[in-house]
Amino acid sequence: MTAGLWVILWCSLLYGCATDLKSQKVYNYTWWFGGLAAGGLLWGSLYAGGSPVLLWHLAVYMVLQFALFVRMYGRADCYAFCVCAIVEASLGMGFSDYLVLMLLALGLLFPVQLLRRNIAKNGNLKQPVAFLPYISAAFALHLCFW
Description:
- By secondary structure, the protein is mostly helical.
- It has one domain.
- It has six helices and no strands.
- Helix 5 crosses helix 6.
- The radius of gyration is 15 Å and the shape is globular.
- 34% of the residues are buried.
């Protein structure tokens, strides 16, 4: 069952990447499936004896995403970061790991946009770009090296 949840999660992320790249729009139902899969992984982890203290880290991170960062990169990207954080919580990662994921995603985005000369003098992007592929790649790298 766990393998099925991982497949649903990655299909959700890949579908979100495809729609983000095509139209810079990610449909809400993308996160219904990804969120349910991530929630299933977290539930399985907690049922197996995972630490409930990590749930506080997750809750604070999610509140920060939608209170502060939604203005920076958009609601769909916040959903993606939250889904990834839920999965990371199921693996025993904490708040600092969620922040590392954010920094890694931005660290992947920055050099690419710098080489494309898409960064304005004020630090914003001249042309908007799909951020979900960077989040997904950062998530995969973070899981591989964790």
